[in-house]
UniProtKB/TrEMBL annotation:
Keywords: Signal. It comes from Corallococcus exercitus. Residues 1-19 form the signal peptide. PROSITE patterns: EF_HAND_1. This is Caspase family protein.
């Protein structure tokens, strides 16, 4: 035993020397597709999808070798002036160019993998998206690019890990087609299970909006979702300062950044899940950048910053917690002449600027030149979006976000404004129909109970033994079936309570509207299950009556054969006939009739045209907003 401690020490000290050298970082490839104009006629044109594509290209070029990032977009005149070096190398976002880019990248990735290196591949899309009968698609310039196309592309590229970033409405359905688990909506668990089965080595970062329009902001010259995502990817979401941005960190960063926006329609909502079903998987490793300028921000004070390049183009925003060290990686072209502003602070009207800086350099805010005046910010509709990044982000905010998410119900994805409106109409109609139906059933129930009890009491009061037996039997059967009916009525969903709950959730601005729809959807389908139970009970009662009819008819024939009086034979035959009529009535009700509420719920579950309802969206733009209306009229 006395030799054990020296031996353990020797082994411990020798392990690093005997161990292998750290594995090299993965090689990064990216295909960025950005499309302002969808192929569908009448689609509102986006203003900044091409700008988003160009910014994503600049970001991934920090991580990749020249030529390993492909950009497919159509640059408008403003974007060409901002990114003149991109014009010769970009191609249109068409299906043919996507296929050609995938083939070229697949060949290049296969070559790198043969050398023993791991490969991370990023597929990024910014533009319009929609859904048709439950299957989502992205809009290229000439056709739809759907879930099957995306899966085929990812399998063709065959990277070690793939990361899908989609900034388009309905992008949720591109990765997870509608009706996961047979429902109209889906939860994170549905999404996780679906990804694990079909794309185990793929991580996704999605905008989960189910609306028709992508929200853009002219002050950002970008989509809101993409700007928040890029700010986080550059390092603002690196809460633990380890140089890696995980899926969980970026999801929390984006959610916290948009928390103070008053209008929920303008808040980007994300779904983030890394390869291997892990939210802690690395989305981007900033320690492996090839060419970047590192901007370090002092850990001690809290600070809110906006970063612009020399042309005034906004590249990143952040709101750092006190005590959080921060290192942002910036493309060298962006860092030259960089301006840093402090929105909302004591220097609101001033900006710091950085002069020439070499790629690979590390700079501190203290090295920036003295502040210079800034022009006043425009006001109006865009004031809504100035609440972006109003809440500080850091380790404490990340931990609080995780605790809050564990305490709250799981979010619900895939429910649009149109569907919420359709649900409102459905619940109101359901309540009205059920109220009238229950009044009718109460009247019939009372009449049947009074009639049955009265008949039984009359037979018991007649005095002879046979009449009393028949009366008691009739009373017992009547009370049995009436009690079963009453119990079933009491166990049914209360339509009035359902309507009150739905209206209350709609009136609560802080409530997740998707959760309200999901709860009503669950309760409506539970009502449908109750109706099926009633039908099964009716069918069971029908067959009992049918058996009783056959038995009574047999008794009548036995009496006839035994020479019993004709009165007894006819009495048995009449009872058999009445039992047969009751049996037929119950069986017909169980098999060939349906209530109005059943039809309503079935329509909600199966209507393929729900998503084609007209949809209205307000898109903030310079000096005001753009009203967009889409759908089938």
């Amino acid at each position: 035993m006395r030799f054990l401690l020296p031996l353990l020490v020797a082994l411990t000290l020798s392990t690093p020397a005997a161990g292998e050298a750290p594995s090299p970082p993965p090689v990064v490839f990216a295909l960025v597709v950005a499309n302002n104009q969808g192929f569908a006629p009448g689609r509102a044109r986006l203003q900044y999808a091409d700008d988003d594509g160009a910014k994503y290209h600049e970001f991934f070029s920090m991580l990749s070798a020249p030529g390993d990032v492909v950009l497919l977009t159509g640059l408008d005149s403003d974007t060409r002036r901002l990114f003149p070096a991109l014009e010769p190398q970009v191609r249109a976002p068409s299906s043919q160019n996507v296929a050609e880019a995938a083939r070229a990248l697949a060949a290049r990735i296969a070559e790198v993998k043969r050398s023993g290196r791991e490969v991370d591949f990023y597929f990024v899309f910014a533009g319009h998206g929609d859904v048709d009968q439950g299957r989502g698609f992205l809009e290229l310039s000439d056709r739809a690019f759907d879930a099957d196309d995306l899966q085929a592309l990812l399998r063709q590229v065959d990277a070690t890990r793939a990361h899908v970033i989609l900034d388009s409405c309905n992008s949720f359905f591109v990765v997870s087609p509608r009706k996961a688990g047979g429902r109209r909506y889906a939860t994170p668990e549905d999404m996780t299970r679906s990804l694990a089965q079909r794309l185990p080595a793929v991580g996704v970062l999605l905008s989960t909006s189910a609306e028709a329009e992508v929200y853009e902001w002219s002050e950002l010259q970008s989509g809101v979702f993409s700007h928040v995502v890029r700010s986080g990817l550059m390092g603002a979401a690196d809460a633990d300062a380890d140089g890696r941005v995980t899926y969980a960190e970026l999801e929390a960063f984006a959610s916290i950044a948009a928390r103070e926006i008053p209008n929920p329609l303008f808040r980007p909502r994300l779904f983030a899940l890394g390869p291997g079903r892990s939210p802690q998987a690395t989305l981007v490793d900033l320690r492996a950048v090839r060419s970047a300028v590192t901007l370090r921000v002092d850990a001690v004070p809290p600070v809110r910053l906006t970063l612009r390049d020399a042309q005034g183009l906004r590249w990143a925003d952040l709101n750092k917690e006190a005590g959080m060290p921060l290192a942002l990686r910036l493309p060298p072209r962006v860092a030259r002449g960089l301006e840093v502003e402090r929105p909302g602070g004591p220097d609101t009207a001033r900006a710091w600027s950085l002069g020439e800086v070499a790629p690979g350099a590390t700079v501190e805010l203290a090295s920036f030149s003295p502040p210079m005046p800034m022009p006043p910010a425009a006001r109006g509709v865009q004031e809504q979006l100035r609440s972006l990044f109003a809440t500080p982000f850091g380790p404490e905010a990340l931990a609080a976000f995780e605790r809050a998410r564990q305490a709250e119900p799981a979010p619900v994805y895939g429910i649009s404004l149109a569907e919420r409106e359709r649900m409102r109409q459905l619940v109101e109609t359901f309540t009205t129909v059920e109220r009238d139906r229950r009044r009718t059933e109460t009247i019939l129930f009372g009449a049947t109970l009074v009639s049955s009890v009265g008949t039984g009491a009359f037979l018991v009061a007649e005095g002879d033994r046979d009449s009393r037996v028949q009366g008691i039997s009739a009373l017992a059967v009547s009370l049995l079936f009436s009690g079963a009916d009453l119990l079933q009525q009491l166990r049914r969903e209360d339509p009035e309570a359902l309507l009150r709950e739905f209206h209350a959730s709609q009136a609560d601005a802080a409530a997740d509207p998707g959760l309200a729809v999901a709860r009503v959807d669950y309760r409506l389908n539970r009502f449908l299950a109750q109706e099926r139970n009633i039908r099964r009970r009716l069918e069971t009662v029908g067959w009992i009556y049918m058996g009783a009819s056959a038995l009574l008819l047999g008794i009548g024939e036995v009496r006839r054969a035994n020479g019993s009086p004709g009165h007894d034979v006819r009495e048995a035959e009449r009872a058999a006939l009445l039992a047969a009529v009751s049996a037929t009535s119950n069986l017909l009700r169980a098999r060939y009739t349906g209530s109005a509420t059943e039809h309503l719920v079935r329509q909600w579950n199966s209507d393929p045209e729900l998503r084609r309802l007209p949809r209205v969206a307000v898109v903030p733009s310079s000096g005001g907003a753009m009203l967009a209306v889409g759908g089938v009229f």
